[in-house]
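Curious: can you check?
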Amino acid sequence: MHVLIAGGGIGGLTAAIACRHFGLDVTVLEQAAELKEIGAGIQIASNASVVLRELGLEDAVRSVGVMPLSYDYRDLYTGRMLYQAPLGMEAAQRYGAPMYNIHRADLVDILAGALPAGVIRFGRKVVGLSQTDEQVEVTLSTGERLRADVLVGADGIHSAVRECLRGQEEKHFANILMWRSLIPAEKLKGLNLEERGNYWFGPGRTLITYWVRPKQLYSILASVPATEVHRESWTDSGDIGDLMRSFDGMEPRARMMMEQIETSFITGMFYRDPVDNWTSGRITMVGDAAHPMVPFLAAGAGQSIEDAWTLARVLSRRQDDVPGALVEYQERRIPRTTRIQAGARAVVKLMHESDPQRIRNRNGRWKGMARIDPLAETSWGLAWDYNVVKAVENPPGEVLGVTGLREGKRLDRPESQRAFLMWKRAFTPEDVARGHDGLREAYDRFLRTNFPLPDSVAAARVELGGVPAFRLDSAGTGGMTVLHFHGGGYLIGSAESSLEYAHRLSKTAGGPCYTVDYRLAPEHPYPAALDDAVDAYRGLLAVGIPSERIVLSGESSGGGLAIGLALALRGAGDPLPAGLLAIAPFADLTLSGESLRKENGSDPAAHRDLLTFMGASYFQGHEPTDPLVSPIFGDLSGLPPLFVAATEGEVLLSDATRLIERATKAGVRVTSRIVVDSVHVFTLFPFLPETEATMTDVRKWMEDLRLQSNEQRRTAA
């Protein structure tokens, strides 16, 4: 098999080496006349290092690069440490290989040196292509025509191969400019710039700095809002005065470092949206030609290296079916690269916050994440914790998509698979890329679109103890009153989007249901949600609803909040409600449950990374083992009867089962329902048979609570 590769960058050269590794013939077509020392620093994380190791190149990278000990996040103006992610040998042990910082030119030299003379043909730009069932033909700017079995576009964000396949497509400007510079070591003496990722964050701007040649050369990537640099025409060189003005007031060590810059080049930050196809017949793409991404997850080069290994391995296995091999290649790669593209954009947004309150929220989240994820696996593991050498030997369906779900995961029954797909499609790549703002909009859209409140049902806006809520009344009278708390990890969700479920709760209870619009993190961290829950409960008491006729209800984080509320009421000496209804409760924000590990990647509604992000956004600087944050750690004795339901296979199953066990041991009367072949918070989906069966059980349970309440009243009288 003969493979043509258009582009002699990192992805193209690695693809060529990998193809030769698997016995394929290859030619690299590079439009430049020679390989020059261009660019600045680049980060090769563990997921890429395992490929370079397999290709026999890791020692060469280690000999000229740097293994950073950590990522250190600091405030740009005070120098205060905000967050630290351990790397070095700790990362090697966690992810299977170290991270290396290296000069881009050094890496390109290593890759080019691994290819025999003549494999790279310089001054060859692809200007046209065609294919038949048997071969592909490219036309070069020199007028040459070359034929091969496969053509791989590795020609970057401005890919000619991509344009030939897909036509002209919009690329997006992130409204961020990036200054890049390299500083010799002798100019940085005395600044104590260790072999770490030394990062500084200010409003709308960042300094990403690290050594790329040990004790020789230091790399700086300074990003600023596009509005801060004005000129009539753009070149790749920048005025250092503009750069320094953008970082005016920075802390002394950062300022002294920046003052050593003599020259810098400036570029815009561009990306393209993910696509669902980058292959046609015998033609495909790798790297930025296929999935150009913003450079803030240390992932761009790594993804192109993963592409290269996957492509070569799949081609080597299916040499008699090139089109089928290329389809398999993209089936393995598109879900993963889409997830990384979205994650990188979310990181850009997070690191370039400009509003002071949002910056405080972000820093608080980092503080919370350091408590439950001290090794920063949630922040970086989605990119780094992946061994493509092993993954390509597994079925394609094992790859994780944008929501952290294995693409091949399916449920058994048609109705449960319908619910599964609804969860899977709730969040798009664009939603994920916009951070918690996008997740909020998407979750409300998901609930309102799929579960609208019937037109015949009225929802009244009310206040309970000063907390906004909605009241829904069923046709029944004399039943229980439900005080409901929606789910969403304390970060997303709303009372309004929970109205359809609240309506069904009202019918089940035979009385009114109040769904509470408690404040959300990260704007309102703990104890805001709990304070609102306490005030709402006391508000019910204040309007004359007796505690023995109230049931606290919640799904997911709302279930944890309902139990936390009961603990708070008990501690304050308030009268306790008649019962607690918790559906798939998020009751352990330390994420220590076994199902968080075992079922990660199997649950379309949640995964460990998302729950870490949500939980840390809520408790921030507070201790996550506080029972009012994570009621799984509380003394549950004396609580009212508890009804818990969850699903086998969901990531929060352990929260439910441990809650059941601990409440039972504490003497609480517990009713539990663990269903199979279903989804997280299955009761949101009214078409599921298990929903109807569980709500029937809840109705009987509430009727028993009502009868007990009546008996207590008669006894008291």
Observations:
- The first strand starts at residue 2 and ends at 6.
- The CA atoms of residues 367 and 620 lie 6 Å apart.
- Residues 322-351 form the longest helix (30 residues).
- The two ends are 91 Å apart (CA to CA).
